[in-house]
Amino acid sequence: MTRALRLALPLWLIVAALPRPAAAANFADLAFRPHPGARLPLGSTLTDEQGRQVLLGRYFTGKPVVLVLEYLRCKTFCGMTLKNLFAALDTLPLAPRRDFEIVAVSIDPRDTPAEAGAAKAKYLSAFGHHPDAAAGIHFLTGRGATTSAIAEIVGFPYRYDPVLDQYLHPAGFVVAAPDGNVSHYVLGVAPTPAELRRDLSDAAAGEAVSPLTRLFLLCHIEGAPLGRWTVPVLAAFTVANVAAGLTLAAVFGAIRRRRHG
Quick check: pTM over 0.85? Predict the structure, then answer.
């Protein structure tokens, strides 16, 4: 099976499971909406792990910034994304603060500075190759209006599900240039060291690159009933492979032919 077909298969499963087209549209609304080159609101006021009011722009100090939108009560992809991000960065000959900053901003206004501090300590403990990394890693909280404004500019849609007491949102993060412009989108939960090194290099040079592949992994509470597929994660994928001239319909057609061939 080709890489495109492997990535597209989760979407086929979701479409088959959803009881009506409107549901599929609702899930698609939660895909990343890449805005390469968009300028982040560096004047936004957030709260750091010590409970201090800080501006987002404080962390743009002439180095690229890895910006992760997440929330600390997440039971699925947020922790996985952060764990894999730190693991991948830990293999690089780059160091937080010296070469880049990591800024994780909670989309949940219930998250507290104390919880943010505990999260920082947790992920910092796994960052073994860079003992002085603490100065370049930041977990921030904020008011709903502030974080939603940041998410809007990034193209990170999310919504709160009161029944499940969870947020639905795509998985992934962005790499921003030192001037605060969005440079790269890293989609999914398993960034590779090579990908991160390339993206950080591009961001340091101020380049903004539009992704060819659009992917969202829908973060949702485990056990949520969704049609006949009850899984911890909903995944949907749209491929735009310019070089090969693939269309979404062609991908679906290839999957069906493979399944029934």
Answer: no
